[in-house]
Amino acid sequence: MNQSRSAQAASGVCEVEMTALEAQLAAALVLMTAHERSGQAAEQRMALARKIGAHLEALAGEMRLSQAFRRIAECLGSQWAEQAGVQAAVQRGQLAIMPAAPGLH
Predict the structure, then answer these.
(1) What percentage of the chain reaches a pLDDT higher than 90?
(2) Distance between CA 64 and CA 67 in Å, rounded?
(3) Per-residue burial over 54-85, b = 16 or more CB atoms within 10 Å of its CB, e = otherwise
(4) What pLDDT, on a 0 to 100 scale, did the predictor assign at position 81?
(5) HEC profile for the chain?
(6) Angle of helix 67-91 versus helix 42-60 axis, rounded to 10
(7) Angle at which helices 20-37 and 42-60 cross, to 10°
(8) Is the pLDDT of residue 1 over 50?
(9) d(Cα 10, Cα 21) in Å, to the nearest integer?
């Protein structure tokens, strides 16, 4: 059943056909959006950060992408993996996040 774009947007359903490579890119974007919207749920944010890092690392190895894009994916994947590690350390109480001093934003 085909729905118009406005009906799809209103229902929150977005069905499209794409290549596997495009699906990998879309999955990374969806995970990033979910991470941003997850609020303060530490376990959920940590799991999403790990998944994002894994998707980006997979894209970094994808030979159909340009070398420049693969390098960006590699750098971003490392940053997301590091963020997941920091979140895990905070959750275990091994690292404390201190609030910024007044006037230091």
Answers:
(1) 24
(2) 9
(3) bbbbebbeeeebeeeebeebeebbeebbebbe
(4) 87
(5) CCCCHHHHHHHCCCCCCCCHHHHHHHHHHHHHHHHHHCCCCHHHHHHHHHHHHHHHHHHHCCCCCCHHHHHHHHHHHHHHHHHHHHHHHHHCCCCCCCCCCCCCC
(6) 160
(7) 160
(8) no
(9) 27
